[in-house]
Task: inverse folding
């Protein structure tokens, strides 16, 4: 039986949307280990769940012996990618971008191995910020047709709402990134989201024109849920990879609450489980699907936050939702300080304690949540957002609040 190469694995598991010269790329991946790169925008201090497709593809590549380059866009981040955007991104400072990259590196290192040259983390600011503008225009700008650039979807869409000359240069800079890594790191392929196809092809063509050699491009499917929503967007906002922004328990809950129709597909893309096992889960129906969801949530959480955090999240989830007894001490807990305890003694409006403990972002959000029937105290619905919660409500010096169906908070009085 012929061993599957990286391309076959990514194709079978549902990653790949399109690629340049598929047959030759498959042949290349069958006979040698290559270096490839994926670029990430450091516009925030954390990546989010939408970046996981690319990160999991890189992790699979490492398992097959290939070397991924995680390219942080410290240079291109100063320009802003117009792809998929209806307006220009805010211009960020060098210092903020640098801080974001340091934070992102910690998250990514949980999924990718940067030890012993198995993977590289580069910052394109190291070469882009040193470019001589006139030389760049002569040597690289001359390789691009304005007519061709205007046909790119990212450019066409933005021409309707306004596109700065700064953003118009973005595709040239990304193509230069590919060429630079081809020259200095023998990087033979660029991968990325489907919205990056035009930018990736521009790099492939630049390498062909300047070097007379072939490089390759691969794009991944934009992952949407069965309901048509963009991956990772919830009523609570973005699901982040940073544990400070989205704690492991809430991360676990995101996965365990996905639609039944998404489970098999998400197991294929977001876990390392063998396809033979995943195909068995795909056949499950009704209540039996709960087991597959728990496996998805556990495996996904383990990859990002480690096995111990995944175990605790599973125990907490079982304590809240399962028939089997779990450990309630693992439920996300908020400890009241002395001042807050005094407020409780006087009686605090229900909507305020939801804000205090992070179950709602603002007083109006908390009020609306309760008025719409989504606020619970010890599994009893709160009907009035202004009803007072006092120490009499605390049994064993704790209460359990719930916002909606999934978001819980255990409130304890600090001794």
Result:
């Amino acid at each position: 039986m012929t061993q599957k190469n990286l391309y076959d694995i990514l194709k079978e598991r549902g990653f790949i949307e399109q690629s340049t010269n598929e047959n030759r790329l498959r042949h290349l991946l069958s006979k040698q280990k290559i270096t490839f790169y994926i670029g990430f925008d450091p516009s925030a201090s954390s990546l989010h769940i939408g970046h996981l497709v690319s990160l999991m593809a890189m992790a699979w590549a490492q398992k097959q012996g290939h070397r991924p380059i995680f390219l942080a866009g410290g240079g291109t981040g100063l320009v802003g990618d117009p792809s998929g955007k209806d307006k220009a991104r805010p211009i960020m400072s060098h210092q903020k971008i640098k801080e974001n990259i340091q934070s992102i590196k910690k998250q990514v290192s949980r999924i990718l191995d940067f030890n012993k040259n198995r993977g590289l983390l580069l910052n394109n600011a190291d070469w882009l910020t040193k470019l001589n503008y006139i030389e760049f225009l002569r040597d690289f700008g001359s390789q691009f047709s304005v007519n061709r650039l205007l046909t790119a979807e990212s450019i066409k869409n933005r021409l309707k709402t306004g596109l700065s000359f700064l953003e118009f240069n973005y595709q040239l800079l990304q193509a230069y990134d590919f060429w630079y890594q081809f020259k200095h790191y023998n990087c033979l392929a660029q991968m990325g989201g489907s919205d990056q196809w035009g930018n990736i092809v521009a790099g492939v063509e630049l390498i062909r024109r300047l070097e007379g050699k072939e490089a390759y491009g691969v794009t991944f499917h934009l992952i949407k849920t069965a309901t048509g929503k963009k991956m990772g967007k919830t009523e609570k906002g973005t699901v982040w990879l940073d544990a400070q922004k989205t704690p492991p328990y809430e991360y676990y809950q995101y996965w365990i609450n996905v639609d039944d129709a998404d489970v098999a597909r998400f197991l294929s893309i977001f876990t390392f489980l063998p396809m033979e096992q995943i195909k068995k889960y795909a056949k499950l129906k009704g209540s039996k699907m709960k087991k597959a969801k728990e496996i998805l949530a556990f495996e996904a959480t383990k990859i990002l936050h480690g096995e111990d955090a995944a175990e605790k999240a599973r125990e907490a989830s079982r304590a809240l939702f399962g028939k089997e007894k779990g450990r309630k001490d693992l439920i996300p807990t908020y400890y009241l300080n002395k001042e807050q305890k005094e407020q409780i003694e006087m009686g605090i409006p229900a909507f305020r304690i939801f804000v205090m403990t992070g179950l709602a972002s603002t007083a109006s959000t908390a009020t609306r949540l309760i008025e719409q029937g989504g606020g619970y105290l010890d599994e009893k619905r709160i009907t009035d957002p202004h009803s007072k919660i006092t120490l009499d409500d605390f049994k064993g010096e704790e209460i359990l609040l719930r916002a909606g169906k999934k978001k819980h908070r255990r409130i304890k009085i600090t001794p």
User: Anything to note?
Assistant: Residues 6-220 form a domain with the Rossmann fold fold (CATH 3.40.50.620). Residues 334 and 357 are 6 Å apart (CA to CA). The radius of gyration is 25 Å.
